[in-house]
Amino acid sequence: QARAVLINAGQANAATVSIVKKSSFVSFSLLQLLKIKPHEVLIESTGVIGQRIKKEALLSSLPKLVSSLSTSTAGAAAVAITTTDLVSKSVAIESQVGDANIRIGGIAKGSGMIHPNMATMLGVITTDALVESEVWRKMVKIAVNRSFNQITVDGDTSTNDTVIALASGLSGKTPISSLHSHEAEQLQAGLDAVMQGLAKSIAWDGEGATCLIEVTVVGAESEMDAAKVARSVASSSLVKAAVYGRDPNWGRIAAAAGYSGIPFDQNKLRILLGDTLLMNNGQPLPFDRSTLTCILFYLLHS
């Protein structure tokens, strides 16, 4: 069970020599300062591939980092881990889970080389919910698949993608022990909301991005099938170009759904852009092109 996360930004520490030795030395120094066990420290790195962690600089900063630990410095941490990001990314919510009022918060970084699954991004989620470890692991995996594993910016992936989620249990007396309990469903909803908020922030801050496109698929046989269709549409260069050019070309959406690899009955296909129905039961419908162009113009500049 982890109790501390150390993040360095600037050097990816990937494709380098003696990675394990240097990382272990840094984590050993941190655990001595925090007076915790070796397995309770986790490390995340982000930055340029092929550049090693600057060990001496990092080691010399550890005492100051530990002395400045506070419940009010999450915002500073969110800024510190950014690289090419234009803005920092953080989300925090309070929610009722059973009889307990719990809090869930998270920070993330990511802007370029973003494509499923996760890619060049880091995230740390914390909650004071009391939940058994195995149940928590399953919940985190579900939430990641619904959020960070669904975003795409440029179609490129890279190294170092990591999401760490810690649950302290300080909010309750009875742990959530079943993934199918009402309390687990409540906690899952909150966890999904935080991770999806962070994921959308990453996509919105994508390098060169001018708008955020959200694709919703309904009627698929499974959540996995729906995710594949949505990913195909969101990743389509032609769909992106249509949105950027304020062109309501629904044919590009239909084509991207068609080549997703998920079979569906084209005679039941419905396509909406915003609230406007463009295709119903596989048949194109008349629509006000100027209205949709205005909607796309709003998306481009909102």
TrEMBL record:
One of its GO terms (molecular function) is L-glutamate N-acetyltransferase activity. One of its GO terms (biological process) is ornithine biosynthetic process. Transmembrane segments: none annotated. PANTHER family: ARGININE BIOSYNTHESIS BIFUNCTIONAL PROTEIN ARGJ, ARGININE BIOSYNTHESIS BIFUNCTIONAL PROTEIN ARGJ, MITOCHONDRIAL. It comes from Linum tenue. Gene3D superfamilies: ArgJ beta chain, C-terminal domain, L-amino peptidase D-ALA esterase/amidase. This is Glutamate N-acetyltransferase. Coiled coil: none annotated. Belongs to the ArgJ family. It comes from the Eukaryota. Keywords: Acyltransferase, Amino-acid biosynthesis, Arginine biosynthesis, Autocatalytic cleavage, Multifunctional enzyme, Transferase. InterPro entries: Arg_biosynth_ArgJ, ArgJ-like_dom_sf, ArgJ_beta_C. CDD domains: OAT.
